[in-house]
Amino acid sequence: MADRLSVADFLVKGLDLPMLSSDPQSLPSDSFCAVSGRKITKGYTIEAIVTPTTAEFLDCFHGDPNGFVSESVARCFKAVRLTSRAMMLFEDGTSYYPLISRTSAAKDESRYCWSDLVRLVWPERAGECVLIILTTNMKRRLWPYARIGALGTNTPVLYYDSETHGQQVLQIHWERMLSCLDLVEDIYSQGFSKAAIRACLWTNWNIAEHIGIWQTRFYEKQLEVWRGTAEFLIAALIAQKKEAT
Q1: pLDDT in tens, 21-44
Q2: What pLDDT, in 10s, does the model give residues 75-131?
C-alpha cells in the first residue's frame, strides 16, 4: 500500500475525509500534483484550495503556485482540523491522536500518550504500513512532509519539536527506540531535566549529587551511546516520568 498510495491518499482513506463541495476538474494530460509529484488527470487548482493564511505556501507546492493538486491533496487541505495534528495512522484505518503528556492523555479515555502508544503497537503491528506525525505544534500543516513506511527497523517518523525547532523525517528502528526510551525514562524519573538528558547530566549538579556521582556517571555513559541518534530524539521528546510505586 505504501507504494500505491500517496500520503494524502492514505489520510483520505484512513480518516474518511469529506469530499469537497465542487467536483475535480479534468486536467491537461501532462499535469502533475504540486504536492505529491504524481501524474494526475483530475484535480483542483492550487488557487481553489488555499487561503490567504496558508502557511509555507511555496514549500508545500514546491514553488509552483499556479499548478494543480490531486483530489486527495485538496481534501486534506480543506480538512485542516483533522490533518493538522499528531497522529499514528495504520493502513487498516486504525488511527491514534496521541499527546506528549500522560496526564493530559488520561483526561480523555480515547487518547494515549506517545510513551504508552509506541509500546502498545509493538510487536503486534510490526510490518504494517503506518503514517506517523510526532509534533508539539497542532497548528502547523505538516502532513505534506510525512512519509509512509512499515513499522519495524526503518520506520519513517515526521518529527517536529517547537522547543528545539527541529523538523525532519527520522528513520526509526522501533525496538532500539523502545530500549532508548526505557533508559531515558529511568533517568528522567530520577529528577534530571530533559535538557540535561539531551546535553549533559552534569548540568543538573544538584540531582547528580542527590543520586550519587557514580550513578550519574553510569547514566551519562549510557546516554553517550544514544545521543545523536534518531531514536534518542524521539525518546527525549516523548519520555514521561514513571509513576511512584
Answers
A1: 999 999 999 999 999 889 999 999
A2: 999 998 999 999 999 999 999 999 999 999 999 988 999 999 999 999 999 999 999
Q: Which position has the grid cell 509500546?
A: 119
Any idea what DSSP says for residue 192? -
Task: Report how far residue 98's alpha carbon sits from residue 134's, in angstroms, rounded to the nearest whole number.
Answer: 9
164 and 18 Cβ atoms separated by less than 8 Å: no
Query: CA angle 166-85-64, nearest 5°?
Result: 70
The structure's pTM equals: 0.92
Which DSSP symbol is given to 208? Answer: H
DSSP one-letter code for 143: G
Looking from the CA of 225 toward its CB, the CA atoms found within 13 Å total 10
The whole-angstrom separation of Cα 206 and Cα 109 is 37
Compute φ and ψ for 161, nearest 5 degrees.
-120, 110
Using CA atoms, how far apart are residues 209 and 213, in angstroms rounded to an integer? 6
